[in-house]
Amino acid sequence: MDSFFDLNGGTTIKFELASKPIWNGIKILNRDFEKVFDQIDTNDNQIRLIEDNLLGEEEYRIDVLSKDMMEVRASDDLGFIYALLFISSDFLNIKPFWFWMDQKIKQTDKIEVPIQSYQSGEKIVKYRGWFINDEVLIDYVSQQNDSDQFWDMAFEALLRCGGNMIIPGTDNNSRKYRSKAVDAGLWITHHHAEPLGAEMFTREYPHLDASYTKHAEKFQELWKKGILEQKENKTIYNLGFRGQGDYPFWQENPEYDTPQKQGALISELINMQYEMVKKYVDNPICCTNLYGEMMELYQEGYIELNPEIIKIWADNGYGKMVSRRQGNSNPRVPALPREDGRHGMYYHVSFYDLQAASHMTMLPNSVDMVNNELHHAFTKGANDFLIVNASNIRPHVFYLDVIKKIWEGENINSAAHAQAFVAEYFDGADGVAECFSEYPKATIKYGEHEDDQAGEQFYNYGVRILASQWMENDQETASHYVWATGNVGFNKQIDYFRQACSRGLESFTHLYDTCNRVSNTLTGEQKTLFDATIYLQTKIHLYCIQGSLDFCEAYAYFVEKKYMSAFLKVGLASEKFADANKEMRNHEYGIWKGFYANDCLSNFKFTAHVLKNLMGYIRVIGEGPRFFYWQRELLYSEEDRKILLLTNIQNHLTDEELLTLMKEDSGDDKWRDSSIPNMLS
């Protein structure tokens, strides 16, 4: 009697009247067959897809009946898709993040599948998925390549993780890629600032004030259009009313100047939107984000919602279920349900706040904290819905894999997850798990709370804010940095930044040394992947820390009126941030060519540019308006420097040329901030 079904190049998939999502799943599995199996000595056998209405939503059963027949049973599209992807992952060994982690697919002639049944597992969250947000890397490389490959691979990875819901991009992209996500079998939901997935009012009516009071009918027409465009799709309609950006609506409507007025309008409009959806959609699923100002109004009792609407609670962008910091305000109100009903979460493994978050690097907090926060929220009833901000995916795979395990019901810890992740994507190579485990321990603690750990924005926005204030007026506080330091003088803000970065210098130098040691033990594709993931992110932090400390040292020299030294240190700082950008670009290869070119949010290269401008400012202060003193210091002999019969005999040097000379002579203090008398004054 046969005991195996031989998956091989001759295996075919049969299904009558397949929907677009099921055909998409079949196409993926057929592609994987081509990757895995050679076409020599094929054995024709069959996988037959059978509709079985005794199975529940998203459930499947795979019955391996003989060497010639495997039956896949499900009652809906996602059930079949998950079954096909189970065959791909568990039998063909195609990993959930195979594309994003450069998995090398091993070829064989056949794979023996035991004759038995396989049943789908349960998920502890009903609606679970990703928000492809701040997707500036994916969007840019897709445009450059004139290809949707990265979007297709994002949707596939989500399905492989057991996800069933997506916000397919931000603003225009959310509508551009909506049909592609629907064809993949996913539920669609919406950005909290784009109610009902409708077009933004200001884009549709650019010459009108975005005031509901003035233009109620136009708002309602946009909402109606959004509903009708999606009524045939699996849609979870997001209800709400915010401004025309990610901010409260009353910034554009100042007449709503009390919490009572604000809450009353939001309540009225959300409940109106819900009734509009019910008019056009049978048994609709709707949600609303209690995010930012919405949560505070709801917690204080100013917003009343229909109980059928799923209330979505958000973390603060750093993985902690408290209200997010907005500007300099950080009340940290617990963001968890207090009453029964339908509740869910919006959770970030990537965040963009122009302060201290992580967009180009991983979440700076531990797997243990993420696990504890999510499971605690589940105990409070927030398990109807979980949307995860995944941004550009590749920098965040480690934590997206954490979320996958959690919504599958696992309780995980940092060390065990690192070991499992490395076993899956690095073949368990020695030392790699240690690097992933140590990463959150190395990140800078910038505040007093458990989750106050810094991503790469801490350095880039810290330097840019402080450099701007330095050039504007360093006798006044940098108002945009009060969130970190409180309302203290500029010099104390610099001290805070220096002390924080000094702590990170030690920890990231240690992690860098560990990564370097591990990298030197690896070879081939394994080394390439390691260097392009955890080692790259470690370098980004370390180089930015080094640049930030040079920047702080430059200010100390500036205060002492040692302007040449200040100029040099700012130049070195600029080069460190440029080095962080170069490291990213140096780790583009194959399909990743150009992936980091449009780092326009954290934007290391722009931080380097701002510091170049600061060099020019220091030069103006230090040797303006004549601009030949430093040149004479660096190029002229000691006996010629103070003889000014001719001020200069060569063109004025550029800032870059001066910096190059200073670096060459930096070991020799003969020029260091010496004072040339202004004999022409």
Task: Write a concise synopsis of the structure shown.
With 681 residues, the protein is α/β, with parallel strands linked by helices. It contains 23 helices and 15 strands. β2, α1 and β3 form a beta-alpha-beta unit.
What would your notes on this structure say?
This protein is an alpha/beta fold and 681 residues long. The protein folds into four domains: 4-119, 2-Layer Sandwich (Chitobiase, domain 2), CATH 3.30.379.10; 127-412, Glycosyl hydrolase family 115 (TIM Barrel, Alpha-Beta Barrel); 457-623; 628-681, no CATH class. It contains 23 helices and 15 strands. It has helices at residues 20-36, 77-91, 136-145, 149-160, 172-176, 178-183, 201-204, 212-230, 259-280, 293-299, 367-379, 397-407, 414-425, 432-442, 457-473, 482-485, 490-519, 524-532, 534-559, 563-586, 604-623, 629-635, 655-665, and strands spanning 4-8, 11-14, 45-51, 60-64, 69-74, 110-114, 117-119, 127-131, 165-167, 187-188, 236-239, 285-290, 310-314, 343-348, 385-389. The radius of gyration is 29 Å and the shape is globular. Mean pLDDT is 94; it is low at 676-681.
Tally of separate domains: 4
Structural class: alpha/beta
Q: What's the story with the biggest beta sheet? A: 8 strands, parallel
Quaternary structure state of the chains depicted: single chain
- Poorly predicted ranges: 676-681
Rg for CA atoms: 29 Å
Please, how many helices?
A: 23
CATH level 1 name of the largest domain: Alpha Beta
